[in-house]
Amino acid sequence: MANRNIEKILTRCITDNKENVYRLSYSYVKNKEDALDIVQDSIYKAISSIDLLKDPEAVKSWYYRIVVNTALDFLRKQKKVQVVDEETILSNSPGTEDVYQDIDLERTLDDLPDKYRSVIVLRYFEDLKIDEVAEVLNENVNTIKTRLYQALQLLRVTMNDEYSKEVK
């Protein structure tokens, strides 16, 4: 009976967070099909390992951790070779309207090491609190604060370097 209750909680978490989880997956792989595969794999992993969930209150961070780890595993397997989807190619090709929607920031984020990118994505794109990020990444809160600070410093330095190159 208790297991059935946890299944309901997990199902509700998966349903309520489907857009966020897709966006989180997409932020790692930059490809619609791969992001959907990651979401699907994550759901399968969560359902098949539901017995490992000790605290039903922590189901969201537990599930997000599965999604992040699945995305990172995917990237490792792909050796970071990214297939660019048609929409991205079209939006960056000449002859289309110039839209610079944070392309420099996206590229800079992509260049960050995974441990920093994960913290930035979860904190600012998924709007998780520091303690939630720590729970998702299975790290100490102070470690997350340090990584967040270091990641922001790296982003700031890189973005300033890019800006100074453009000015010269």
TrEMBL record:
Transmembrane segments: none annotated. The keyword Cell division does not apply. GO terms for biological process: DNA-templated transcription initiation. GO terms for molecular function: DNA binding; sigma factor activity. It comes from the Bacteria. Residues 104-155 form the RNA polymerase sigma factor 70 region 4 type domain. CDD domains: Sigma70_r4. InterPro entries: RNA_pol_sigma-70-like, RNA_pol_sigma-70_dom, RNA_pol_sigma70_r2, RNA_pol_sigma70_r4_t2, RNA_pol_sigma_r2, RNA_pol_sigma_r3/r4-like, WH-like_DNA-bd_sf. Keywords: Sigma factor, Transcription, Transcription regulation. Residues 14-80 form the RNA polymerase sigma-70 region domain. SUPFAM superfamilies: Sigma2 domain of RNA polymerase sigma factors, Sigma3 and sigma4 domains of RNA polymerase sigma factors. Signal peptide: none annotated. Belongs to the sigma-70 factor family. ECF subfamily. This is RNA polymerase subunit sigma-70.
